[in-house]
Amino acid sequence: MVLKNKREECYPEVWDVPISALPEIGPGREKKLNKMGIATVRDLLLYPPRRYEDRRNLIKIKEMEEGHKYTVLVSVERARQIYLRQGLSQARVLFRDDTSSVEGIFWGRAYLTRYLFQPGKKFFLYGTIEKVQSRLIMNNPEYEEYTQEEANIHTARLVPIYTMTEGLSLRSFRRWIYETLMNVVIVDPLEEKFISSRGLMSLPEAVKRLHFPEAIDDVEQARQRLAYDEILQIQKDWLTWKVNNIKDKSVCQHKTDGMILTTFRNQLPFVLTSAQNRVIDEILEDLSTPKQMLRLVQGDVGCGKTLVALHALCASVDSHYQSCLMTPTEILAEQHFLNLKKHLSSLPVRIELLTSSIRSAREIRKQIAHGEVDIVVGTHALIQESTLFKNLGLIVIDEQHRFGVMQREKLRMKGHAPDVLYLTATPIPRTLALTVYGGMDISVIDEMPPGRQPIKTYIIPEKKREGLIQFIIKQAQKGLATYWVCPSIEKSSHREDLKPLLTIYEKLHSNAFSTLRTDLLHGRLSFNEKAEVMSRFAQGEIDVLFSTTVIEVGVDVAHATNLVVENAECFGLAQLHQLRGRVGRGPYTSYCFLMSSTTNPVSKERLRILCTINNGFEIAEKDLQLRGHGEIGGFRQSGDTDLRFVDFTRDLPIIQQARNDAIQIFKS
Ligand code: ADP
Ligand code: MG
What ligand is nearest to the CA atom of residue 272? Predict the structure, then answer.
């Protein structure tokens, strides 16, 4: 492949640098990439495609059949700009190969005719062929100029499809990855001999094949190498922790029969599940011994991990230690904070919230340093240098995989050998958990709170929209609220089929839902605005909350029993399952409505999995099994897990190998 970018001198030499080191990434894009969990060039290059689309079916125009998707290699015959009402524009381009001609219609992109679609230039087009009267048309096809020197990345090959955040285009993202791959030097930390003796690909090769495989088998080989590295990393983390830990002499020993914990237990509004009780016992046992705790609590969304962690926090207060609960997002931190306050309201415990947008952060930090705060709930703000604890004895990290090792270690360094509890919903089979997480102690909550019915999940085609709207109104009259989730905030000219949040909101809010109380929640609101909307929703002042996926994690409102997801086919299954975790949190029957008119059989099949299975782990497995049914792909999406590449169904040998190797490497 030949360099596509002439500015290679702008690229950093290595991949372990902030993403802003790349030529096209300014502060705005950096922020959006951060949202996708991408902070460094390494994160970018290890961001797994959600799937791959096979666009290798290059054929002649004459051979194309209506309603199917193809790639064609064509040249521009003529191009026109068309201006319609309301500022809408189109580029209409007539393309031709040696058999026939096809018209490409590019909505909202009349400007393309000016510099791109010039007569004589050659392009690959990929899209669905339609017939209007006797003319062949492609609406918004994917396009890419064909030249001798440059490799094609969007068409005529296996093309990676990524889950994107609002405001970034898939096309640019793919190009950034490609250009970065071409220009950045990836050094394999492992020796060639070592790697090849284990039958693995080199790291640079694996990263390249992950995004731009030549053949489908490439992806599997790349995956194996990256899975090996994930396990190796976890094992190394753990071994590092162990060594540091042996050096620490002063170990926190907690009291587990104190007044706070006892009172808290006695006034819990519900009965704990036996899984919760077992895990609480395991944790309290750890806390009461002089041994330092490093325990991972694993359990599906909604199984009640927070409540379990609360027991540990109470024990810490009884022992006159400070403790903290760190979360990856502000919205989740605020939720935990309010939850904690509610449960501990009658007890003499001082709880504070610390996030980067809290106005009184300085004052709160002072109080923490003076030991005036018992429990601090917060985000990354907890790790900052200016946050100092007087005597931090316990750390709880929610969604632990969303933090890097360094971040977790930094927080740990703020205390003297504090006990550590990690919470995660990463769906890992119990039999493998021990091998994967090495010497870490593991507790599994494998039971859901009682009385919780599975969430009734349905696929709703467009023609049933009206019925759904009526149902939501009836629910609202009973006091049961709804989350209405859309894939993007605004209309995108590239994706005419997507239902934008603002449009949907405007339509429903002023018509069908005019008698209901509605509001909006999305990433462009400030933290305070978001918190304000969320708290009104939690208090029952909003019937239908129109939102983007910002509600994805951890938000907990018992009377919110309905979830509607527009364009459900655009989301990953793990993400839909996470979203679905927002409902079914109280005693009422809950519903999840997946709006989708997709005709793609694999997409339909994927959505059907959600209708029949309620268990996150099984969903992930089924999702992976669908690999190879016409659509290729399936990596766990970043943000869900620290194990994006490991395939639990068949990687046991790789896991064991990596584990043994980590111990060997660590020794030498
Ligand atoms: P997750 O494991 O996803 O973090 P949470 O801790 O947020 O789950 O708990 C989900 C919901 O279930 C919360 O509303 C919590 O109060 C409730 N809950 C937890 N344990 C029980 C229980 N034993 N009985 C009833 N409700 C419970
Ligand atoms: Mg949680």
Answer: 1
